[in-house]
Batch of 3 targets.
Target 1
Amino acid sequence: MYSFRRTLFAKHEKEEEEEEEEEDLPDVDDYLKTEKSKLIQTFVKTLRLDVIAKMGFEMSRAQFEKEFYSGSVRLNGQKCIKKHVPIFINDEIDIILSRSTTNPKNIIVNRCKLLVAKLRQDNPNDIKIALLQNKNLLIEDYDKCDSDD
């Protein structure tokens, strides 16, 4: 009987933690809520571009470096020259996949957006993050946007 109560208590605590986690998540713009979007919650040691992108795109460090050095990584629409730049809440990281075949002013990207970053309570060396991942998102080309100004 004791183990049943203990299990029930642990289950109740876990449900409360999950509810708190869901409350921590901010509202997401409707255009980012698609059938191809995914919410990722994990822990990291630092909020650097390479670390967050690796988690947000679920790729290895070598895969990210390949994308980075090919020039297809963008942070908030700007090409990154250093992979260790800090990431802040609501920053968007894009990996350019290709140009749209139907409209040359559009590109197809994989995007991840940092929604939440909090220090872990039981281990302050870890940062709890929530990322929104979108695959094959059709957006206006950054270069085309800049040239119109």
Target 2
Amino acid sequence: MAKKGTPPCGNFNPVLSSGKLTQQLIVDYYCRIEGDRSKYIRSQQSKLREETYSGLADALRATANETNSIVGKLVVLPSSFIGSPRNMVQNYQHAMAIVKEFGKPDLFITFTCHASWPEVITKFLDSLHLSDLPPHSLVLKKGTIVILLRNLNVIYNLMNGTRLIVRNMYDHSLDLESITGKGTGQRILLPRIDLTPSDSTLLYLFTRHQFPIRIAFAILYCLLDCIYPILYLVMVNFMLPCPELDFLKS
């Protein structure tokens, strides 16, 4: 569904607008944080009172002797390490202490839903952001640069990846002008068509009746960390007249 209007320029964030690349960035930094925490625990075992776990070490050595195994260096995860066995036991003990002090809970509330409910399916499908489908809500304005997502006509250079610019918008079609390839300058009227995702791992098979386009982005290689030089692809939208992005155009 195409909507007329201009997105708020001041709220645009190239990192948060990168889709799957943003998710990859978050996962990578989460793994780095967990790695740093694990490294600190390994190097600070003496400060974490490792000697209090001597009984555990003796039990491990006895088990290793019985199975002819070799015991490596013992690293104890404290209860402050979220997700560790001691952290789970500590949370359980805290819960039992609350029950002992205030009594058993009066209500135990559960909510059950079925994956095939129309409300669940609609909300789930609307929240999907697939690379070969336009977003559920597509916001356009005159002058927006878009990219074609389907091969429509090879003769007129209307193929997947063709860049076009929006010249006008109507209720059931878009007036577009090609700005790349042999058909540069050519005007077309693009209707809505039925689009089906190519991802076979989705829970549902569905078809959307949409314009086969999405807003075009430029690709920028950005070094986000000087200590660990990792290159991330950051999608930067040059369509919006944002003062925050002027330094990228110089």
Target 3
Amino acid sequence: MAKDSLDSVTIGILELADSHNANNVCEWFEQILKEWDIQKHQVLTVVTDSGANILSAVKKKTFGNDHHLPCFAHTLNLVTQRPLNELPDIQNIISKIKSIVTFFKQSVSANDELKIVCDLKLKQSVPTRWNSIYYMIDRFLLCSNHIASILITIRRGPSMLSGDEIVIAKEINLILKPFEAATKEFCGETYIKSSKVIPLIHCLLKHCEKIAVNNPTVVQFALLDNLQRRFKSLHSNKPVAVSKAIRTIRLNILDIKTNSSGSNKDSSDDDTEQADNLWSFHNELVSKKRRKILKRTMSVCQQN
């Protein structure tokens, strides 16, 4: 780690030919530690998903319970997956979109026709890829008019979504968008992210509550309920603490971005714009706090 920045380095990739049980994963950890001459007490934190085999290997067999930290972005992705998979009407729309995307991926003629009228490529959802359903629906909606014009000419092609289903798909994407932005907040490798969890969850809850949709309100309520249940133990109900934490974090991030190279300027601006939308509740808290301080200061000055 340099003086004013963090480094992310891959020290090992190993194919596990045997069963991925806790004992074999533990042996892999031991092999990597031995190869790099790293002592276990030198490892401060091990961040993993919530798989039972991984948890057992880290907590019980290798590093101990005090050294494990669950991956927030992975947990956040699980928050969105469960409601989408358990609501039949929503799952039906997602399945129809996935079938259409699969058809264009497998049909050379249909894909060639789409390339002629549209510069964008369709994206397929992948269960192991974070936010892939959001990206699939978002790209599908951008290309929907072109897709409809092509499918209507194909006799054995999949059925296009109806007008009502298109509207619902747009609202599903609107609900998933803040979760995608939150995931991006935790994919950075040049700044500390763990201290952002509590304030971000609070802002995410407030942001989702304010989303105005007409159709998939069940999705909205299910996501909010799942989000609260998974992170109910976090102390995210103190606005003043949230405001102070975010203020310090954002100042540090601003310093890092100011000193970073100009080659990443465009992508950083896009991420910042999405993050600012997600942090809108925090910004409101900051504005209210500043007005109170200003009002109190003016009152003291007038008394003197």
